[in-house]
Amino acid sequence: MSVYPGRGVHGQVVEAIGRRIVTGQDAPGSTLDLDSLEVTYDVSKTVVREALKVLAAKGLVDARPKRGTFVRPRSEWSLLDPDLLRWQFEDPMGSGMLDDLYEVRIIVEPAGARLAAGRRTEEDLARLTATLAEVTPRSGAKEIVKADLAFHRQLLEASHNELLIRMEYIIEIGLRARDLLVHAEGHREDFLPPHQAVLEAVRAADADGAERAMRALLEKAAKDEQEIKGREWR
Fold first, then answer.
1. Bridge partners of 64?
2. What is the rounded (10 degree) CA torsion for 220, 225, 231, 234?
3. Residue 17 CB: number of other CB atoms within 10 A?
4. β-pairing, 31-32 with 61-64?
5. Pair 128, 158: CB distance under 8 Å
6. Mean pLDDT over residues 165-187, rounded?
7. What's the pLDDT score for residue 47?
8. Which of the two residues, 181 and 86, has the higher pLDDT score?
9. How far apart are CA 223 and CA 3, in angstroms?
10. Of 64, 55, 59, 58, which Cα lies nearest the Cα of 16?
């Protein structure tokens, strides 16, 4: 069994079985054999049962008399659960989740940028400016990913809309996987210009400009992803 630091044996079993279900190794409707899981992961039946309780709370499994424990239909999964999001984005190109992420972002983030342009404080602007200033020509993929996650989170925080801010914590899980993929393949030198365009529109309190700049940024991000997909399919 793989080791997942800080989660303990119980957490490791949750991770392992959760991944199996989300990646389709245990398909919806299939039955989970507790004895087999106990042997596979070399843990007690108590640990397996406790792990399945956690997965049941996430909507992944259920148990019925005479049927046993089985995988629930995908439509019943808690897809916005942080663990489920993380497991799904571990294969971002193969799962189709990047397409779903783009559709969510193109709905949420341009509207967030528009609100930020009208509501941002000097403190908001200072944080956004400092985040982009951390990116230099020598910055590697990890530094750019860190700055990108912070910038998008801070921008929605500048909207001062609590529900939008919560949306970014959902988006961030997928965005991290997307960024690691894209920036590892390149696209580092063109990171700053589209982000700076958003920031300058927000700084100028230009709501229309901020919305347009964010839309352009996201469309460019989608183009970068398609370019990488094209390489993988050759």
1. 68
2. -110
3. 24
4. unpaired
5. yes
6. 75
7. 95
8. 86
9. 36
10. 55
Token pair in block for residue 21: 């279900």
Q: Above 70 in pLDDT, residue 173?
A: yes
Average pLDDT, the chain: 88
Amino acid at 220: K
Which amino acid is it at 9? V
pLDDT of residue 29: 96
Q: What confidence tier does 148 reach under pLDDT thresholds 50, 70, 90?
A: very high
| Length of the chain (residues) | 234
**pLDDT category, 95, cuts 50, 70, 90?**
low
Amino acid at 230: G
Strand order in the sheet with 61-64: 31-32, 68-71, 61-64
Return d(Cα 161, Cα 108) in angstroms, integer: 12
Q: pLDDT value at position 2?
A: 45
Kindly write down the DSSP assignment for every residue of 113-158, as one continuous string: HHHHHHH--HHHHHHHHHHHHT--TT--HHHHHHHHHHHHHHHHHT
Q: Count how many Cα atoms sit within 13 Å of the Cα of residue 45 in the half-sphere of its side chain.
A: 4
CA distance 94 to 80: 19
Give me the residues paired with residue 61 across strands: 71
Calpha distance 60→134 (Å, rounded) = 40
